[in-house]
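Re: How this chain folds, sequence and tokenised backbone to follow

Filed under: protein folding, tokenised backbone structure, sequence and structure records.

Contents: The amino acid chain and a row of whole-number tokens, matched residue for residue.

Body of memo: The sequence and its backbone structure tokens, given next.
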Amino acid sequence: MLVSVAFGFGLLVGAVLVLLIVLAAQRGRRAAAVASSDVPDGVDAVIEALESAGVVLDPSNTVVRASRAAMAFGLVWNQALVHPELVALVDRARRGDEPITEELTLHRGPFGDASMHLSVRAARLGARYVLLLAEDRTESYRLEEVRRDFVANISHELKTPIGAVGVLAEALESAADEPAQVRRFASRLRIESERLARLTQEIIELSRLQASDALENAELVDVDHVVAQAIDQNRVSADAQRIKLVGGPPSGATIFGDESMLVTAVHNLIVNAIQYSPSGSRVGIGVSTRDGVVEIAVTDQGVGIPEDELDRVFERFFRVDPARSRHTGGTGLGLSIVKHVVQNHGGDIRVWSQPGHGSTFTIRLPEASHVAA
């Protein structure tokens, strides 16, 4: 009898356990069904087609859908948003009725230190989900920063000659009865006015080079003729400093582009070489072709450029030796103009330098015959 009772009790316990397991399984299936329920129709297709970052989150802030861009930006990791700022934005959108838009600066990925500037918008998607969209504005922020720096630099650079013109004008007025002083001040006034005119012209030239139609008048250009013109434009200033300009043999090379722009680029390289070369030295200008590439090299025997400044020489208003440049009338825009001219022609520019031994700037452009082939 005792055995039968025990056996019956065991069956009862077993049945209860089985019932509990079945009920748990059913609850689990229902919970899984709720958790994995489909997002609203069409969202999958939209997320897949997005070029910007798109993320769909469920009520527990688990990421249920994410676009490729969201993964590339490092916004999602282990099915969760990486950045607490985004989580906070999603929570606010879930509690409200209207979409929320914010500009955020975030690190790329959970471990990265590179910053991104994003325009982020969060909105409720049905009753359960929240849609997060992010547009990358990093490049526009960078360009805006460049623009601000450029305007600030222009203001600074213009202030010096404009201020000097004003001071010299006052000095001329007070020295009206002293012919020698008038001549001296007038000479300085002419130098400053020329510097101001040169700076203004180079700013205009740089703006033109950045236009989308900078090469609308492109044609076949004789590279040897370009170099000859640039040398002739600098012959007087080189002779004044006892610097010899030495051209190489004819190359016969041609490129497709704007001749006046190319002359300006080579001219600026020669001007730069003369400014930083000692009296009695040489500046060599040579043209060579190899594997469809035309190379125009300008080599000086000047002071050279420190290695840590080589990457900066093409920046606007950057000067290796500010005192020397201002003394010689340099604007700090010459090499930047060269860079833009070369880029507009589909080429690049390289620099080699050794302090105390000189520098070589090399323009590399696609040869016309090679392009035509």
In short: The longest helix spans residues 138-174. The chain has a mean pLDDT of 78.
